[in-house]
Amino acid sequence: xxxxxxxxxxxxxxxxxxxxxxxxxxxxxxxxxxxxxxxxxxxxxxxxxxxxxxxxxxxxxxxxxxxxxxxxxxxxxxxxxxxxxxxxxxxxxxxxxxxxxxxxxxxxxxxxxxxxxxxxxxxxxxxxxxxxxxxxxxxxxxxxxxxxxxxxxxxxxxxxxxxxxxxxxxxxxxxxxxxxxxxxxxxxxxxxxxxxxxxxxxxxxxxxxxxxxxxxxxxxxxxxxxxxxxxxxxxxxxxxxxxxxxxxxxxxxxxxxxxxxxxxxxxxxxxxxxxxxxxxxxxxxxxxxxxxxxxxxxxxxxxxxxxxxxxxxxxxxxxxxx
Length: 322
Hints:
Layout: H1 2-13, E1 22-28, E2 40-47, E3 52-60, H2 68-74, E4 78-85, H3 86-95, E5 100-105, H4 109-123, E6 129-131, H5 141-151, E7 156-157, H6 167-175, H7 180-188, H8 206-214, E8 216-217, E9 225-227, H9 244-265, H10 270-293, H11 307-320
Antiparallel strand pairs: 1-2, 1-5, 2-3, 3-4, 4-6, 5-9, 7-8
Helix pairs in contact: 4-5, 6-7, 9-11, 10-11
């Protein structure tokens, strides 16, 4: 808190950035946790004359918020703009050996000042929070629109990336097609997730924003990125032993073996029904709640939801008809 208070004091007192100042887009590569698999985006404001080297990022949230998990599931999570010295921000990524790419933006003094002023205003306690939306309003979209507003011109890019692909296909690239996380996301995503993405629709993911800006230009041909080295994201592959097809296969093998065992001994193993029924019931309740009561934009009723009752029905038929 002391660091942030000092930053606020500096931000309010530094009315003008110097000519040596520069603003960069920082793109952080993925981590192992699910929420970190998509990477992260931040803005760096560096001004040696004013002894300023701060990082602003729109990805701060508080686990201790009242009813945090309930709000998160509902899609009603409030994120906020955080700020920290560059060395502090980099410490976590250095410890985890996660590369951070920096793109220095090609901005005029007035454009740099406009972004700096907007960040200071957004960092005020009454302005720093916003209703997070994974696809349309997150840590990557906010910096992009801040930059676009400061440039005040049409941005075009030769980078096509996943243009024309669906949100479902796009997100699968980062979660892994065979992972349980992707299986769950596929079940919950409704028809909206199958809508083809246009150019700027892709920029909710940090890597796409980095690649897009690297080849972006203004209407007069001026490149948006002045300098900076970038690299591809190293997306972790799902090991075969942790894939959802193997998990389902083992589940059905277990049910078949127990069915044969009960048939040979002429008795019914009631606990098999419990093992299969309780998780199914809980999963069904969660899916129904998220499908019909969540505020997440891409979540909705789709044909893939039928897979859950069909899987349970097949398992029951195998066990009952023994």
